[in-house]
Design a protein that fits this description.
The protein has 105 residues and is of the alpha/beta class. The protein is 35% helix and 27% strand. The protein has three helices and five strands; from the N terminus they run E-E-E-H-E-H-E-H. It has a five-stranded mixed β-sheet with strand order 1-2-4-3-5, with helices on both faces. The longest helix has 14 residues. The radius of gyration is 12 Å and the shape is globular.
Amino acid sequence: MKIKVKNIDVNYIQYGEGNDVLLLHGWGQNIAMMKPLGDNLCDRFRVTIIDFPGFGESDEPHETWTIDKYELLLEKFIKELNIKKPIVIGHSFGGYETNFIITQS
């Protein structure tokens, strides 16, 4: 699935039912990296996995992005998809992004 956030088509998958879990891949990775974990959680949670801009099937940003731009995109992505108080699991770069989400809760 794709959603337009900050003029970028962002690819994501969402499946399962229950409380929200948001899975964030590492730098140079994509949804496929986190899908095995999501597959093990989807019987108890609603799992959302994103391709960060510039990775997987998401659009490449038109300029070089700082960490702040990725954080703003995540904030809007979470609001657009009505993700409520997610459990956030991130690897590498995705783990860095979890700090932003935790401080915004």
